[in-house]
Amino acid sequence: MLPADSPIRILAVDDHPMLRDGLGAMIAAQPDMQLIAEAGTGREAIDLYRLHRPDITLMDLRLPDMHGVDAITTIREIHPQARIIVLTTYLGDVQATRAFKAGAQGYLMKATLRKELVEAIRAVHAGRRRLPTDVASEMAEHSSDDSLTAREIEVLQGVSAGNSNKIVAAKLKITEDTVKSHMRSILTKLSATDRTHAVMIALKRGFLNI
């Protein structure tokens, strides 16, 4: 058991060394915090979490070997009380919803880290949640929407790459009529006017990654 006045022990996970350096500098400036380990991949994050059991894990969503949400899920299986703050460049409600369902307690935009990181770490360590107002509003707005299925996301991913229905069908080994059916469903669910509009909405909300 650590003493009550021991620093908040932090694991930083991001594949960009410069961003990790920036996080380290911000944490080092706080007398009640300590950066105990850094990881550049999801697998490293899981191994280092298992080794160090940090109080707070700062988790990027886009990692070279796995999605950050999958790393969060695994860490929470190791220790269900693990406290994790997502660091991301995306405002989309879909990514945030996935992260919180996986067990994250905080969600921070990388552009606001200088202003919000330290306070967010203390808040999550104290058992509170941290979520940007913009993201919370998006999540509330779409809470009752029908989500896209895995297959619909695959179809939309193919469309976003500029492929015709015929090419998307061939790549997914389904019929062109099935692709058209999926697109009709996608347009309805996203309230989109056409394919391009659907892709734009999907990118904004986080169904697709660029």
Describe this structure in words.
It is a single chain. By secondary structure, the chain is an alpha/beta fold. It contains ten helices and five strands; from the N terminus they run βαβαβαβαβαααααα. The protein has helices at 17-28, 42-52, 68-78, 93-102, 113-125, 133-141, 150-160, 165-172, 176-190, 195-205, and strands spanning 8-13, 33-39, 56-60, 84-88, 106-109. The protein has a five-stranded parallel beta sheet, sandwiched between helices. The longest helix is centred in the last third of the chain and has 15 residues, at 176-190. The mean pLDDT is 91.
List the helices and strands and how they pair.
Blueprint: E1 8-13, H1 17-28, E2 33-39, H2 42-52, E3 56-60, H3 68-78, E4 84-88, H4 93-102, E5 106-109, H5 113-125, H6 133-141, H7 150-160, H8 165-172, H9 176-190, H10 195-205
Parallel strand pairs: 1-2, 1-3, 3-4, 4-5
Helix pairs in contact: 2-3, 3-4, 4-6, 7-8, 7-9, 7-10, 8-9, 9-10
Tag the structure with descriptive keywords.
Arc Repressor Mutant, subunit A, alpha/beta, 5 strands, 210 residues, Rossmann fold
- The CATH C-level name of the largest domain is Alpha Beta
What is the string of helix and strand elements? EHEHEHEHEHHHHHH
Uncertain regions: pLDDT < 50 for 5+ in a row? none
- Calculate the mean pLDDT score and round it: 91
Q: CATH-wise, what's the superfamily of the largest domain?
A: Response regulator
How many β-strand runs?
5
Helix/strand-derived category reads: alpha/beta
User: Gyration radius, to the nearest Å?
Assistant: 19 Å
Number of domains: 2
